[in-house]
Amino acid sequence: METKRKKIVKMKRIPMMPLRGLMIFPHMALHFDVGRPRSVAALEAAMLDEQRIFLVAQKDAETENPGQDDIYQVGTIAQIKQVLNLPGNSLRVLVEGIQRASLKSIIQEDPFWVASVQPIPSSDAAQGNVLQALMRTAQELFEEFARISSRVSEETLRSVSDVNEPDQLSDVIAANVLTRLEDRQAILEEAGVAPRLERLCEILAREIELTGIEKQVQSRLKKQIEKNQKDYYLREQIRAIQEELGENDAAESDALRERLEKLPLNEEAHDKAMRELDRMARMAPGTPEVSVIQSYLEWICDLPWGKYTKDDLNLKRARDILDADHYGMKQVKERVIEYLAVRRMQQQAEQGTVRAPILCFVGPPGVGKTSIVKGIAKAMGRKFIQMSLGGVRDEAEIRGHRRTYIGAIPGRIIAGMKQAGTMNPVFLFDEIDKMGNDFRGDPASAMLEVLDGEQNAAFRDHYLELPFDLSQVTFITTANTKDTIPAPLLDRMEIIEVPSYTEEEKLQIAKRHLLPRVTAEHGLPKGSLHVTDAAIRMMIEGYTREAGVRTLQRTLEHAARKAAVELLENHGKSVTIGKTKVAEYLGAPRYQRELPEKEPCVGVVNGLAYTVVGGETLAVECATMPGSGALRLTGQLGDVMKESAQAALSWIRAHSKEYGLDPDFYKELDIHIHVPEGAVPKDGPSAGVTMVTALLSAVSGRPVRQDVAMTGEITLRGRVLPIGGVKEKLLAAYRAGLHTVLLPKENAKDLEDIPPYVLDTFRIVLTEKIDDVLHVALLPRESEE
Ligand code: ADP
After folding, report:
1. Which residues lie with the beta carbon below 6 Å from any ligand 1 atom?
2. Residues tagged active-site
3. 600-637 pLDDT, tens per residue?
4. Is this structure's pTM higher than 0.85?
5. 251: CB partners within 8 A, 6+ apart
6. Strands 669-675 and 614-626, bridge-based pairing
């Protein structure tokens, strides 16, 4: 082999063949197919001669018939090792590179190229050890390259490590490492062995680094692709399962988006809703979180954003509506009309910002508070929503729970707004006096925010977490008493007292409103049910004891049910309920006017109290026993009443002489005052006169007239001060069938409102001083008599 590869240095004429996309290094074997006629001819000519050929690369592999300019100037003289005929006049050859050579001139072009070439001897000018070092470096780099790259086979690696000749080493490495034709050509053209090795070392180092990076990128890509594929696969599976189950989340989220886009949301709400929608779209469908977001978005969609009813504030119409459904209530209606008139004026002046006061209707149950508010809504042409605050202790009921709680929902305000379907309904809060508070937070402070016109334009529910405008809502409240309404709330409200009804008023309400309504509601034909006035009076007196008309309404309903049965069973056309029928239908009367038969007795006095359910008689009892001057109080007593008892005792001690008592009478006595349990009196001090009378009777032994009832506050000097609830108290006295009622003189003006039939049944004594009271109520001691 060495002989064959003997280096040639002198100029030489030799057949030439251009190579397309290929080139061959010395010390290297190469297989390729030859098809171009000129190349085939050149090969054949070479075979006939020395079997040597000059192989040179074409600059552009595409050129079919290259000229001298189309080929590089340096090529390789090669030994032809083998030639195989292939079908179609082409040949397959195996050649081995012998030596670099440069093209000097082309001597013949046809039928094949013959070139005159100048062999290039390799110059190993560098010092021996420099070459050695370069060789070792190149070998090490090549090994490293082989390890990380898949391009080098085990066999090549072994053969390279066996090479110990620098010229050969550089060519073998170049042949195995370089891929770009230009790079390979550059190495081929380099005659010096040392520069060639150096260049290769550089290329190898760069290749190693690049291959490393390439590998990292590839493995990262591979992982990413694997993960994407896995996710995709799983999602597809879920989708398939959902389709199987008939659920389709994408459609739902699209529908939600469409609904949300249509709503006139404020900016914050819009952004938030869109964020949640995107979050939902990104989640795997079917997870619990998705349904939480979905129901949240549905809540937003269901709120009446931007929907308003147009106010229709025609006073005449409003009056008609209120009158149509309510008998009496003159002052209340007047007040309501005033309220509506002011609103109308504000609207005309376009002073929407001037806040209307929040009305609060205060009165006993069943006097028509709710019903009048419904009338207001109707008169204004607004939607009506009612929410009871009775027993609401938790702030969350008003403001909702945060969404982090499982099963959280908005508070009742937002729920009410959804139900109303407009941004400006009439929103009634019932029983605002019965709101509690405890460790779960103070609902009153949440209510303050709701009712405060400054804050409620951006009311925030914990669940929605968005500002919602409540400023156009007309809030109205009701209460049984204003005493227990939290002071800051009371501050913001305008109180309208709705008084109890007299028997006569109840009769009229029953005739004009309740009876027609009950008849209709029970499906009885018009005019088929008659109830005589006497029967209604009997129902009021014997079957109800109330300030309003709720029980009366229920009693009428009871009677209507019985009448319906009778009509059907007897095939009758109409039923008339008289007094006897009442007893027949409803059983024996439950209440009776207790006519006073009781004998005067010591230490028991009929007081009159004004309670949350109307007026009541209240028998205050007082007893004495040997002791050491202690005052005991039991029963239904508020702080004010306890003070009244103290004041009463003080007054008696101060006036002991006038009433024939030993000034030290109390020292050897224990005094016990008892106020029977019943409804909580609204006004403690009005029991003042009752306390004094009971006490004095007990300590002096003078009996008290039982057909007398009294009310009045006292001062320490014995003056009688006016009290509230005169109408209610007198109605209670009327029901109890009393003879004489003692009233503070300053309350005389209140008697105008009292119907004559009440005033006619008893004598009213107006009192100025406690002596006036005692004079009427106390009888002389029996012995004195
Ligand atoms: P409240 O809210 O004060 O407890 P409601 O408004 O519920 O009382 O009244 C109870 C019932 O009595 C209702 O059916 C109402 O229509 C009727 N009612 C009360 N007052 C009147 C009145 N003045 N005229 C006609 N119906 C009345």
Report:
1. 326-329, 365-371, 478, 509, 513, 548-550, 553
2. 686, 729
3. 889 999 988 887 667 888 888 999 999 888 888 887 77
4. no
5. none
6. antiparallel
